[in-house]
Amino acid sequence: MSTNKTGNDTGSIGNYRWAICALLFFCTTINYVDRNSLSVLKTTLQGALGWEDVDYGTITTAFTFAYAMFPSVIGIIIDKIGVKKALACALVVWSLAAAAHGLVGTVLGFVIVRFILGFAEAANFPASIKAVGMWFPQKERALATGIFNSGTSIGVIVSGGIVWIAVHLGWQMSFVAIGIVGLMWLYFWQRFFADPEKQARLGQAELDYIRSDQPQAQQALKLPWTTLMRYREIWPFLIGKLITDPVWWFYLFWLPSYLDRERGQNPLNAGIWVAVIYTGSSVGSILGGWISSTLMKRGWPVGKARMTAMGLAAIFMPGSILAYYADSFAACVAFITLATACHQAWSANLFTNATDLFPQKVSGSVVGLGATAGGIGGMFMTLLAGLTVQWTGNQQIVFVWAGLMHVLALALFWFWFKGRFVQIDVDTPLDVSRTHVGLALSGAIVAAAGAALAALVIGNWAYLVNVVKITGAVQSIVVAAAVFLIGVALFYASRPKKSAVR
Fold first, then answer.
1. Cα angle at 28 between 114 and 323, to 5 degrees?
2. Beta carbons within 10 angstroms of residue 252's beta carbon
């Protein structure tokens, strides 16, 4: 009888990899509790510190900007120093930043700690997706991603408990408490996580199973983001994140006010229904990952399995539109639950595309770029939703928009890949002779669009301040600057090089 490196029977495949998935789930839950703490304590803080809505908007914008701008940089760092060290450092920083909320009392103080929180929390998804790529064979990655990604919904639900701490111990202690919880998780991360080849608790049979589609441990590779952007395989992922991530942001930030203002629910009832909706979205996250993983285990090609799962999620997203026009409140909640569940099912498979199309050793950088794209889209969505409510008095246009973006992204994926996903070889020098002209042209167009948008914002600054307050106006110029910088990045990436690999 063969034995593994710890002397145990290797005849059966163990389940240690699912313990790693559980660690990532709890980390993601803590991540969302920390980021959602400010919104659930908004009323308390406004009463205690005398905030106006514009102050709250300024503080949230600081988080959004940091969370959108830094994932691409952090992704490169994760690929360079490894998942364990990178996520541990990030969690220490964001836990300390979360606790520091209880030590500041000015708007500027909250802006600073919120910015640091957004910067550090940007590491969660690039690190988690890379960890899944390390610990799971391809046919199980979407399911593992769906499970840990469901922590986003659980975090939103659990964050309601922060109000109880604030009532009984004070709002300062509520922030300190969530910071302590993050540091407690760090103990288990340090004890149980390691590269599979270095984890003594892992049986040889399970290690062989994990490595069944990547038999050799992958070495770190220095691959600049400018090189990554030359690969045509990355663009459906980036564009998909850009146009579908904002749908989640829309529900996250605007759903409670919609249920209150347009559906007549008081804040308490709205909170209960939000919990119901996000419970459904957790189920969708896991189910979406399970579908593609199950299809692959039955012999389906990876592209067909992923596209099927993404297609099933996308075709039900127009439920968002039906939710707005439904007369019955129960039907409205049901359709919104369906839409959020389908988004999370989509997200579980979209995230996994990063490891389907790119090797694990650069997945942190790829997911980081995707997170930046999604963050920029989320900033645009926040502005769009605010302007729409101000101009029309309702959220009708945004609900229609939210119902169509996934269908558009699905069409892009089908047009681009035709259902066939093939992982690229980043170790082979990239032929840039046919890519730099297209990138340069795209960069010039995007940069020009950003400059035009900035000019439009500056020219109508007084109007924007009047309509969406100073925070909305600032966010408008930030979005314009982000679009311009994307164009500059594309143009920079188009420069001819002798070799794309270092």
1. 90
2. 20
Q: What is the pTM of this model?
A: 0.81
Please write the tens of the pLDDT for every residue from 368-412. 888 888 888 877 776 677 677 767 777 788 889 889 999 999 998
Per DSSP, helices labelled H in 316-395 are: 319-325, 329-357, 363-392
Length of the chain: 502
Helices and strands (H and E) in the chain: how many? 22, 0
For the cut 50, the answer to whether the pLDDT of residue 500 exceeds it is no
| Boundaries of every domain in the chain | 16-204+224-419, 433-502
Structure tokens, 499 = 């070799």
Distance between CA 321 and CA 339 in Å, rounded? 9
* Alpha helix (H) residue ranges in 216-266: 225-228, 234-261
Q: Please give the Cα distance from 41 to 46 (Å, whole number).
A: 8
Which phi and psi (to 5°) does residue 471 adopt?
-65, -45
C-alpha span between 139 and 106 (Å, rounded): 49
> Which superfamily, per CATH, for 16-204+224-419?
MFS general substrate transporter like domains (1.20.1250.20)
**Cα 3 from Cα 11, distance rounded (Å):** 8
